[in-house]
Automatic annotation (TrEMBL):
Designated name of the protein: NAD-dependent protein deacylase
Gene3D superfamilies, alphabetized: SIR2/SIRT2 'Small Domain (3.30.1600.10), TPP-binding domain (3.40.50.1220)
Subcellular location, record wording: Cytoplasm
Keyword Cytoplasm attached: yes
Catalytic reaction equation(s): N(6)-acetyl-L-lysyl-[protein] + NAD(+) + H2O = 2''-O-acetyl-ADP-D-ribose + nicotinamide + L-lysyl-[protein]; N(6)-succinyl-L-lysyl-[protein] + NAD(+) + H2O = 2''-O-succinyl-ADP-D-ribose + nicotinamide + L-lysyl-[protein]
UniProt source species: Arsenicibacter rosenii
EC number per UniProt: 2.3.1.286
Top-level enzyme category: transferase
GO cellular component, one term: cytoplasm
Family from the record: Belongs to the sirtuin family. Class III subfamily.
InterPro entries noted in UniProt: DHS-like_NAD/FAD-binding_dom, NAD-dep_sirtuin_deacylases, Sirtuin, Sirtuin_cat_small_dom_sf, Sirtuin_class_III, Ssirtuin_cat_dom
The protein's role, per its UniProt record: NAD-dependent lysine deacetylase and desuccinylase that specifically removes acetyl and succinyl groups on target proteins. Modulates the activities of several proteins which are inactive in their acylated form.
Record-annotated Deacetylase sirtuin-type domain positions: 1-231
Residues reported to bind substrate: Y56, R59
Recorded name of the encoding gene: cobB
Length: 233
């Protein structure tokens, strides 16, 4: 078991699109319908926390109702032949719901809340709503456990270390528009194969060793996973 190859998966909103959750930058994506600076920054929280809560409450409600699709499930099957870690930019819990064993959330999790002042005070949310007035054990208002634009990405160092050790990198459903997460594609060791599953081709510099599978996750991933499992057998 120890000599299994290591696969790191970097996933983005596109893998959950076929579960009915909106992406950010596609047409009719979330950022066409909301302004980032109104709902996803520390300034937005200071200016109008109720609006920010409402935005994430709605997203939480949708995410909790969603089911994993064949793309999420293919990544679970991959564990039959590889040591797999999923590094996701997604804040839904569909990788976990599908059964992936190792999931690292770079941008936080909708199913958790945290103290406004102490980021180490993190709580599971009971239900789908955080209300103004809901407080942590030390009395501060609870906020969504989400990394907003302009905030540090605490799990980034761990993600970097994992990616530097990967034997194969699989990138799925991300426009690679947001850093530092997008920088992970350049952290692999030289010669490590990179597979990109996305109906649109994200812009990747230095395309050596990159294979583009220009298909939706629900068909592209199961086929790629079958191929990789055959190679591991
Ligand atoms: N299967 C695979 N990929 C898909 C599918 C699909 N069915 N549908 C769309 N995509 C692709 C799009 O082509 C695009 O490349 O998913 C990608 C979605 O890109 P974004 O909307 O930019 O989402 P993401 O890359 O996850 O955004 C990164 O931005 O707003 C922040 O914090 C937020 O984590 C998010 C970050």
């Amino acid at each position: 078991m120890e000599n299994r190859k290591k696969i790191v998966v970097l996933s983005g909103a596109g893998i959950s699109a076929e579960s009915g959750l909106a992406t950010f930058r596609d047409s009719n994506g979330l950022w066409e319908n909301y302004r980032i600076e109104d709902v996803a920054t520390p300034e937005a929280w200071r200016k109008n926390p109720a609006l920010v809560q409402e935005f994430y409450n709605l997203r939480r409600k949708q995410a909790l109702a969603a089911e994993p699709n064949p793309g999420h499930r293919a990544l679970v099957s991959l564990e039959r032949g590889y040591a797999v870690t999923v590094i996701t930019q997604n804040v839904d819990n569909l990788h976990e719901k599908a059964g992936s064993a190792n999931v690292l959330h770079l941008h936080g999790e909708l199913t958790k809340a945290r103290s406004t002042y102490d980021p180490s005070l993190v709580y599971d949310i009971d239900g789908w709503e955080i209300k103004m007035g809901d407080r942590c054990e030390r009395g501060s208002q609870l906020r969504p456990h989400i990394v907003w634009f302009g905030e540090a990405v605490p799990m980034m160092d761990v993600a970097m270390d994992l990616t530097e050790e990967a034997d194969i990198l699989l990138v799925v459903g991300t426009s690679l528009a947001v850093y530092p997460a997008a920088g992970l594609v350049y952290a692999v060791r030289p010669g490590v194969p990179v597979y990109v599953v996305d109906p649109n081709t994200p812009d990747i510099r230095n395309r050596k060793n990159v294979t583009f599978i220009t298909e939706p996750a629900s068909t592209g991933l199961p086929r790629l996973v079958d191929q990789l499992l055959k190679e591991a057998a």
